[in-house]
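To: structure desk
From: M.T.
Subject: fold request, one chain
Message: Could you run this one when you get a chance? Sequence is below, nothing fancy, just the single chain.
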Amino acid sequence: MTISASVHRPPIIAPSMLKCDFGNLIGEIGRLETAGSTWLHWDVMDGHFVPNLSYGAMVIQSVRTRTKAFFDAHLMIGDPAKYLDDYINAGCDAITVHIEAVPDPGPLLKRIRAAGRQAGLALNPVTPVSRIEPFLEECDLVLVMSVEPGFGGQKFMPQVLEKVQSLKTKISPGTLLSIDGGIASPTIASAAKAGCQVFVAGSAVFDEPEYRDAIENLQRLAASR
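Reply: Done. Structure tokens follow.
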């Protein structure tokens, strides 16, 4: 099972909804769609696996019928197996869990795929690639964290690009490489050159007055690597 490149052609800019104006969530989604965004990245934090809280499945489900965008759920939570069905029922298209939270994610990745969703596996900056290698065949997406998870606005950690380069040689051709943290105009080209195809961007999109200009600029920089 792979994420179709014909539908989602890299480079893909995935705005991180953690940075949106939640007082106008529907309006923000509309602005992103108008700007040409086809992916929305939902950072779910539980205050346990990471020291911050965000939103849960109910919020995601409440807007699912309002957009045709691909919903990319990033579960930064301590017990993703317990809540997996909530995110499936919420309409998430891809669900990513952390190797640090689930040391043996194989069964969970299979559950995600069995539900007809794309299975993703994430690793933190200090986690070696060897931790996820045994599970790469069960992945449709691999997410490399380029900041410590839990807070937006952190600086990009360029040392993680060695992991991206290593993963590029180990994953199947249909598996997407995603990167999350500090992605902006100065960093996206180097991430793309290392092999990333999906770029989670928060401040680089939401802090700009025109979302379309921001997204197109990031796409241009990633494509010109």
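Reply (cont.): The domain at 12-223 is CATH 3.20.20.70 (TIM Barrel). Let me know if you need anything else for the meeting.
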